[in-house]
Specification:
Number of helices: 12
Strand content: 15-25%
Number of strands: 12
Distance between the termini: 50 Å
Radius of gyration: 20 Å
Strand order of the largest sheet: 3-2-1-4-11
Shape: globular
Helix content: 40-55%
Order of helices and strands: EHEHEHEEHEEEEEEHHEHHHHHH
Low-confidence stretches: none
Largest sheet: 5 strands, mixed
Structural class: alpha/beta
Mean pLDDT: 94
């Protein structure tokens, strides 16, 4: 495809940490994209498997940035964003394969809907017809989840639709939008970074969108899988987002339901043998209470959309993957969540 003046530069940022051949396969697929004007920045978080060096040898056109320490997902990607020359930005996980037209469809959606955060349709890399996400949703109690995960794609949704937040597995936006929202929050390090970004965007009137014609394949959690460490980050960052995004007035109305949800989370972590992870998450939130208060005040100052308006869009139930919890527990937990969520919405809305 021939580059034209109407094809603005897109900077594709791929953060690497010991991704091995997954990184090589990802970059290879990116260079087969039909969109004509893009640059690829591979940011390495102090990998020990030499994958970043091999990648640079194989793909000379990439810009390789080598961090001197593991900065985590958030700050690692921020390094890439700061070095990007493009008008548009893509954050792309190294354990993905993109279809040739993926970027064209994301750009088309942006041209139609304007400022926003966009994600493609995600399929499993190993089971090509199995969905991983048709957009990410945010629950009133801070849980994030992917719609239709684990289901076979029926192809019914063909049009771009609004979602609660775009997945950081592959997130497309403009540099101008990121200037308005701010970069990924380094405190989060990894997990819920995309949820936080989408929540911040929504609070200043910038929506997130799912683009079904843009397709990528994702291996998912190649580094931590479903481990105690992953559950620690998920719970720590869920609590952080609740404390920084909801106003004090909103939080006060939710205090009892949040306590009851927390009892369920404690029981879940105990059942999975991850009690230490839950304790560590709680202690870390307590230790960082001053920083959390500062962040809360920063976000409250720039809000233009109220908690009330956003909560109207939040679903009452969440999706929990089968490999995380038994279906019976999932249903019980969702029954509790749904009941409490509806009560909270009555109070707030």
């Amino acid at each position: 495809m021939v580059k034209s003046n109407s094809d603005p530069l897109v900077s594709i940022i791929i953060l690497n940490y010991n991704a091995g051949n997954l990184l090589l396969n990802c970059v290879d697929s990116v260079f087969k994209s039909t969109y004509p004007n893009f640059e690829v920045l591979v940011v390495d978080n102090l990998s020990t498997d030499n994958s970043h060096v091999i990648c640079k040898e194989k793909f000379e056109k990439i810009q390789l940035i080598e961090n001197k320490e593991n900065l985590g997902y958030c700050e690692g990607n921020n390094v890439g964003i700061r070095n990007a020359k493009g008008k548009f930005i893509v954050i792309l996980n190294p354990d993905t394969i993109v279809e040739p037209s993926w970027l064209n469809h994301l750009m088309s959606a942006y041209n139609e809907f304007g400022d926003g955060l966009y994600q493609p349709k995600f399929f499993s890399l190993n089971e090509k017809l199995v969905l991983q996400s048709t957009g990410n949703m945010l629950h009133v109690f801070g849980f994030g989840f992917a719609k239709n995960k684990g289901k076979i794609d029926d192809g019914k949704i063909k049009l771009v639709e609004e979602i609660n937040y775009a997945s950081g597995t592959c997130l497309f936006t403009s540099k101008m939008v990121l200037d308005k929202i701010g970069l990924l929050d380094p405190f989060l390090f990894l997990y819920h970074d995309d949820l936080d970004l989408g929540w911040r965007a929504a609070h200043i009137g910038i929506n997130s969108f799912y683009v079904p014609k843009s397709i990528i394949y994702h291996a998912e959690s190649y580094s931590l899988k479903w481990s105690s460490k992953k559950f620690y980050w998920l719970e720590r960052n869920r609590k952080y987002c609740l404390l920084t995004h909801y106003s004090k007035e909103t939080y006060a109305k939710m205090r009892l339901p949040l306590f009851l949800v927390d009892v369920c989370v404690w029981l879940f972590y105990l059942s999975k043998g991850f009690l230490v992870a839950k304790i560590k998450a709680e202690l870390d939130i307590y230790r960082n209470r001053k920083a959390i208060k500062i962040r809360y005040n920063q976000l409250e100052k720039i809000k233009t959309v109220s908690d009330k308006e956003l909560i109207k869009k939040f679903p009452d139930e969440i999706f929990v993957p089968k490999n995380v919890s038994e279906p019976i527990f999932n249903q019980l937990f969702n029954n509790i969540l749904s009941t409490l969520s509806k009560k909270v919405k009555k109070k707030i809305i």
